[in-house]
Structures are given as structure tokens and as C-alpha cells.
């Protein structure tokens, strides 16, 4: 179990890097909730191509966590893992709060659906998920490679939502965002001592360097893994999903077993295979008239 001092140090490092990456990609951090974060794009100022920037930031953040984990392992501390959910929709943004305390933030159904996307990461075994509306907002020149995992009815919603896994970026782009000026915040240590200016600048430099390294890693990891290999896997999964939704379970099973023979650790494919194997029973209960192949989530 981490000491209070170690936990605070790890969280500060992690949250600083995640914030830096978000801001480098034109986003804003709205909330820090323990070890969780809520970020938004395209408000209060317009951010062109904001859906792509949000997905790119998520890819870089996943790579940044790998680099942070290298530091943690060297220090004998447990490693971190993150899940990122992205949704594009209309929100109410502005000063929110009471007469005594207010802040700029966003509220609305789109915020809730982004949270549902993050929760679905655990269900599908994926690191980054985006909704169908985000996927539709991605321009071809963004170079982002995604695959549809399923159509899902999340808790509290009657209409299904297409869920996509964000896998990699096929071409490197420099985020068209000017670096934000860093505000000098006085952060007391656990022992209540004041940080020196030199120490603060060193921490900031370390954060900037790690964010840059993660950005480069997000690009090179995609090129190393091979776009052709990913395309083949995505095509096989997409074909199997179509057969599952059409209640052609034997064909879907054959396609998935072929996929898993080459990529045995593909967790969404393992999940879909489980659904396919239980498909005939589910189809018998629903009947051909109302069978949709939707995944209905009873929990958040």
C-alpha cells in the first residue's frame, strides 16, 4: 500500500502529464476527481478538428502512462493504467455553480455519454473508446484508425450508440495549438515545505519532455505495429460483427476463430466470440422479428 506522500507524488506526476497533453491538443481540464479527469474541447473557444484532437490526445496519454510506469517501476511503485472515453455532442457550457462558488464547466447528456464510453472500456478490454458521433466527426486526413466494436444501449438510454475503439494514428500531425502559458502554482509538499523556483521549473521541464516523448511514441508505435496488420484484423472483426448482427452465428464464429488464431490477445474479439456462442440462445428468446444484436448494458 502506498504511503500518503508516495500517492500524492504519483498522482501529481500523472495528472500534470495528462493535463499538459490535453492542453497541447487544444483541450481543457474541467474536473480532477481523485485519479479521474474530465476534459472538454471546442468551448469556450472554437477548436477546429476537435474530435480528432481529443482522440489524438487519448493515444498520447496512453503512451505517456507507459513512460510514467517506467519511472514507477524504477522507484519500486505499482504501475498505472488508464481508460479513456470520448464523445462528441452538444453541452451547456459557462460559469456553473452557486452564488458563493462558481467555475467554468460543461453539463449535459454528452458529458454523461462520454463517461459511459470510459466505463465500456473495461467491458470491452480496450484502452480508448469513442462514440459513433465522434467517429463520424473524424476527417480522413486525421489519419486515425478505429474499428466499430458493437452497437450498445447504455444504461439510461433507449437509443443505441455505436462504440468504436481508437487504435492508432496512421500519419503524424503536429497539433495546431499554441502552447499555453504555464501558471505558477505554489504546490505545498506533504511536509508543508515550499517548493523552490528551481525545483518547480525542473518539474515542468520533466513534464514537457515526457509529453513530447509520449507524442513521438504514439506515432512510432503505430508504424511499428504495421498498418496492414491492423487493417486485416479490423476487417476480420468487422465481418464477424456483421454476421453476428445478422444472426449468422456459425459464420461469425469461424471468422472470429480465424482472427484469434493470429491475434489471440484481442480482447474485444474474445468478447464478441462469447456473445456469438451464446447467440442462438439469445436469438431464440428474442425471435427473428426483434433480434438486433445490440449489447444492452444494465450498469454504468
Largest sheet: 5 strands, mixed
Instruction: Report the order of strands and helices.
Output: HEEHEEEHEHEEHHHHHE
Shape: globular
What's the CATH class label of the largest domain? Alpha Beta
Helix content: 40-55%
Can you characterise this structure?
- With 300 residues, the chain is of the alpha/beta class.
- It folds into two domains: 4-170 and 284-299, 2-Layer Sandwich (Alpha-Beta Plaits), CATH 3.30.70.1230; 230-278, no CATH class.
- 50% of the residues lie in helices and 17% in strands.
- The protein has helices at 4-24, 50-74, 109-124, 132-137, 197-225, 227-245, 249-262, 267-277, 279-286; strands at 28-33, 36-40, 84-86, 92-97, 102-107, 128-131, 144-153, 161-169, 295-296.
- It has a five-stranded mixed β-sheet.
- Strand 7 (144-153) and strand 8 form a beta hairpin.
- Helix 1 (4-24) packs antiparallel against helix 2, helix 2 (50-74) crosses helix 5 (197-225) and helix 7 runs antiparallel to helix 8 (267-277).
- The longest helix is centred in the last third of the chain and has 29 residues, at 197-225.
- The chain is globular, with a radius of gyration of 21 Å.
Amino acid at each position: 500500500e502506498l504511503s500518503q506522500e508516495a500517492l500524492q507524488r504519483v498522482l501529481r506526476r500523472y495528472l500534470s502529464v495528462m493535463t499538459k497533453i490535453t492542453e497541447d491538443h487544444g483541450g481543457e481540464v474541467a474536473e480532477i476527481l481523485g485519479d479521474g479527469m474530465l476534459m472538454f474541447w471546442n468551448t469556450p473557444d472554437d477548436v477546429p478538428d476537435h474530435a480528432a484532437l481529443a482522440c489524438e490526445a487519448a493515444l498520447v496519454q496512453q503512451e505517456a502512462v507507459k513512460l510514467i510506469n517506467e519511472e514507477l517501476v524504477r522507484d519500486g511503485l505499482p504501475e498505472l493504467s488508464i481508460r479513456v472515453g470520448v464523445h462528441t455532442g452538444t453541452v451547456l457550457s459557462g460559469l456553473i455553480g452557486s452564488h458563493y462558488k462558481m467555475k467554468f464547466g460543461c453539463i449535459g447528456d454528452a458529458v454523461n455519454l462520454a463517461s459511459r464510453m470510459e466505463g465500456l472500456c473495461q467491458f470491452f478490454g480496450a484502452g480508448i473508446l469513442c462514440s459513433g458521433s465522434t467517429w463520424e466527426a473524424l476527417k480522413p486526413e486525421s489519419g486515425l484508425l478505429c474499428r466499430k466494436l458493437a452497437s450498445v444501449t447504455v444504461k439510461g438510454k433507449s437509443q443505441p450508440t455505436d462504440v468504436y475503439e481508437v487504435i492508432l494514428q496512421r500519419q503524424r500531425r503536429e497539433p495546431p495549438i499554441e502552447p499555453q502559458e504555464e501558471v505558477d502554482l505554489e504546490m505545498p509538499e506533504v511536509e508543508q515545505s515550499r517548493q523552490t523556483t528551481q525545483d518547480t521549473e525542473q518539474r515542468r521541464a520533466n513534464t514537457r519532455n515526457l509529453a513530447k516523448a509520449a507524442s513521438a511514441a504514439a506515432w512510432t508505435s503505430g508504424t511499428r505495429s504495421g498498418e496492414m496488420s491492423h487493417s486485416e484484423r479490423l476487417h476480420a472483426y468487422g465481418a464477424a460483427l456483421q454476421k453476428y448482427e445478422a444472426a449468422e452465428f456459425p459464420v461469425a464464429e469461424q471468422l472470429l476463430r480465424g482472427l484469434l488464431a493470429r491475434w489471440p490477445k484481442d480482447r474485444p474479439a474474445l468478447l464478441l466470440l462469447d456473445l456469438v456462442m451464446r447467440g442462438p440462445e439469445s436469438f431464440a428468446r428474442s425471435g427473428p422479428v426483434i433480434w438486433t444484436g445490440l449489447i444492452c448494458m444494465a450498469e454504468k
